[in-house]
Amino acid sequence: MFETNNLRIRAVRNTDFEKIHDLWNDLRVQKSLSPSYVVPLGNKFEETLRTSAADALLYCIIETKDKGNWVGFVNLFNGDQKNRDAMLGLALCPEFWGRGYATEVLLFVVDYAFRELALHRITLNVFGNNAAAIKVYKRVGFVEEGIQRKANWSGGNWQDVVLMAILDEEWAASKGDHGE
Ligand SMILES: CC(C)(COP(=O)(O)OP(=O)(O)OC[C@H]1O[C@@H](n2cnc3c(N)ncnc32)[C@H](O)[C@@H]1OP(=O)(O)O)[C@@H](O)C(=O)NCCC(=O)NCCS
Which residues form the N-acetyltransferase domain (predicted)? Predict the structure, then answer.
């Protein structure tokens, strides 16, 4: 289990999958995570979640330290062993948005990924209209590497898909900026 100022970042348990499923079924969250059809997801989806968690390099649940509230999940998946690259995923329950939790979690996870998991890159895709996520990723040090133009249909509009990544050397160079 990991701890940051306000949060615990712990291993996923069997009892978490219902909550993760519910989080995906919040359509505000699902449309930020998935380029597929945004639809209520039934029981079979929980099997998909369990498989993804089992296959992930890191799949953790985020809780508040003070009250033990269930906040969301963070993961590193699709690890490319040869190139030491992994994809980042993150989602929080909407009632916890805007408190700095995503920034707090990512500052820890990115540091851990480079320092302990020996990654060289962390990669992610984010939809161009997800201003909150892009702000957090840039603040943590992710750099925009490319754009797939109008690649996702959402809310009656085409959205760009933005590819972002951070390198171990960039993280090392920026560590002073994060007060370490
Ligand atoms: C994206 C997400 C992880 C951000 O979590 P969070 O804990 O609210 O993020 P933080 O509070 O650390 O930072 C969010 C920042 O974006 C800003 N922000 C929020 N909505 C915004 C908007 N519409 N436009 C611009 N900035 C916005 C906030 O003010 C905050 O900046 P500040 O700290 O300078 O005030 C959360 O909204 C979420 O789980 N969304 C659904 C899933 C998702 O999008 N995951 C990422 C997929 S790539």
Answer: 7-169
